[in-house]
Write a structure and sequence with these properties.
This protein is α/β, with parallel strands linked by helices and about 280 residues long. It contains seven helices and 15 strands. The protein starts with a strand and ends with a helix. About 45% of the residues are buried. It binds flavin-adenine dinucleotide and FE2/S2 (inorganic) cluster.
Length: about 280
Amino acid sequence: MTPVQEQAEIFALQKVGDYVQFTVIAPKIAQDAKPGQFVAVAVGGENTAMILRRSFALLSATPSGDFAGTVQFVVADAGAGTRWLTQRRTGDVIDIVGPLGVPFPLPSSPVPAVLVGGGYGTAPLLPLAQALKANGSEVEFVLGASTSTRLFGELAAKRLAGRVTVTTDDGTSGQRGIVTDVLPEVIERVRAQIVYACGPMGMLRAVSELAQAFRIHAQVAVEESMACGIGVCMTCVLPVVGDDGYSRFVRSCVEGPIFDGTRVRWRDVGTLPPDLVGAEAMGGH
Ligand SMILES: Cc1cc2nc3c(=O)[nH]c(=O)nc-3n(C[C@H](O)[C@H](O)[C@H](O)COP(=O)(O)OP(=O)(O)OC[C@H]3O[C@@H](n4cnc5c(N)ncnc54)[C@H](O)[C@@H]3O)c2cc1C
Ligand code: FES
């Protein structure tokens, strides 16, 4: 579906731990949005110098029914733009574009799946779990964060999945440690054939490497810096190995943000690998 721009009224704001959960009225975006897609929100108001939109993964998209269609997303106060956003009030109108990016691919037949969320990265995994369950797949969650107030969606995950394993760096909730400490045991126990993950890049890399070691699929939602969000500026590129074995820069805003984690050249993210298709020409500029 082609992304649309909407002037969206904030219907509800909810503080969830360190995050703010937004519910906004955006019926055109809600109509066709799928788990894994994201929205880009203008920040700072009319005369702001913050010209770049900020991206947020969709927590839900509820098409119009008895009420106007709504979308939900979760915001962490990370810098000037997100601070402005978290200071909005119910009834305010925000400028929002979506749905952007590609959704999580679903397996063609039911398979056991483990969903790994880091911090607010759990948000897009909740609608994904619903979709997986609807296709008959068994789902289990592993959720991690630096501390308990930075966990998101634990209760919702418990309602959706057979089991939820929680880790925090400081031990304030669940097991002390990081998600990859517990992931191997969970993969083995549920005989997972696929791992889905969303969270910090370091976590996605570690999860993808584990999936590769277990010879199972990994689909990860990356969070690269995005300037335009619509495929024209190349800010968001990642080096990815293609079906032909050659590596290319792939735009995470339009060809992602979901990638086969075993194909991303994590070690080379942020660099220009010399063996990349077209690297010579790019290096010449
Ligand atoms: C697909 C995707 C999904 C995301 N989902 C969520 C989510 O669900 N919840 C959440 O809280 N956050 C999410 N984020 C992260 C969120 O977009 C950032 O935290 C937010 O952009 C930070 O904005 P800020 O103004 O607060 O921070 P600042 O640090 O003030 O500004 C960061 C912004 O500056 C721009 N920028 C930074 N570096 C560069 C660069 N090298 N080149 C060009 N522009 C640059 C980008 O537009 C970036 O958004 C997501 C990001 C992506 C890409
Ligand atoms: S953000 Fe501009 S091409 Fe992806």
